[in-house]
Amino acid sequence: MTLHDLYTGERTYRRYLQKEISHDTLLAVMENVRLTHCAGNMQKLTFAVVTDPALRDQMAQQVHFAAYLPKEIGQPKPGEEAMAYVVIIKPKDKYPLGDIDAGIAAEVITSSAWEQGVGSCIMLNFNAAKVNELLQIPDDSTARIVIAMGYPAHTSTVVEMNEAHDVKYYVDDEVNYYVPKRALEDLVQWK
Ligand SMILES: Cc1cc2nc3c(=O)[nH]c(=O)nc-3n(C[C@H](O)[C@H](O)[C@H](O)COP(=O)(O)O)c2cc1C
Predict the structure, then answer these.
(1) Max alpha carbon distance in the chain (Å)?
(2) What's residue 163's pLDDT?
(3) 122 lines ligand 1 (CB under 6 A)
(4) Fewer Cβ close by (within 10 Å): the C or N end of the chain?
């Protein structure tokens, strides 16, 4: 798979097959994030990988999918829920570049997962206090990003943006996603 193929397919997936993700697969993902760039090589982020079914069920209550869609369409139904969650944990102390490090880590995690056919949804819309409690994250740190994961139960296709420049993704009757992306000439100034 070329990187272009990878980034074309590596969309956000929000409904998942109920097939376990093997420990080896998750280990390969986390090994890549271990090697990732970070500001000053400080390596202050830590990660929780949740695969325990009971904890997974509790995590599912704390995350909110697809803000552009009605809840009954965007939120995975029972039997479509994530099979793993990777939680990026950030220290609360002075760490101004922590969010940038967390964003880079999230992309490495999602692309590494997709390389193995595992779909992801990067999430900031979650109850951090509850997730901190569930995962027993120490008081000096907090869950900053949650990544829901699983083998996709839907497709997601990049489409050209319409003339109204509407950024909202949408779904068809089978809840397959369509994701408008801006044209390159609208993004890049060649100097
Ligand atoms: C920082 C960040 C936060 C996001 N938070 C959520 C979220 O809380 N819930 C959700 O369903 N999707 C979330 N997403 C996924 C975006 O909605 C998705 O990336 C966007 O619609 C583009 O779709 P694509 O990932 O397929 O390109 C988030 C993505 C990023 C990068």
Answers:
(1) 54
(2) 87
(3) yes
(4) C
Candidates 124, 147, 154, 171: which one to mutate for ligand 1, based on the most atoms within 8 Å of Cβ?
Answer: 124
- Burial zone of 89 (CB within 10 Å; 0-12 exposed, 13-18 middle, 19+ buried): buried
Q: What is the pLDDT of residue 134?
A: 98
How far does the centroid of ligand 1 lie from the alpha carbon of residue 155, in Å? 15
Mean pLDDT of the chain: 97
Q: How far is the C-alpha of 84 from the C-alpha of 81, rounded, in Å?
A: 9
Domains and CATH numbers, the chain: 3-154 (3.40.109.10)
User: Is any ligand 1 atom within 6 A of the Cβ of residue 154?
Assistant: no
What pLDDT is stored for residue 31 in this prediction?
A: 98
Q: Ligand 1, from 11, 123, 155, 158: best to mutate by most atoms within 8 Å of Cβ?
A: 123
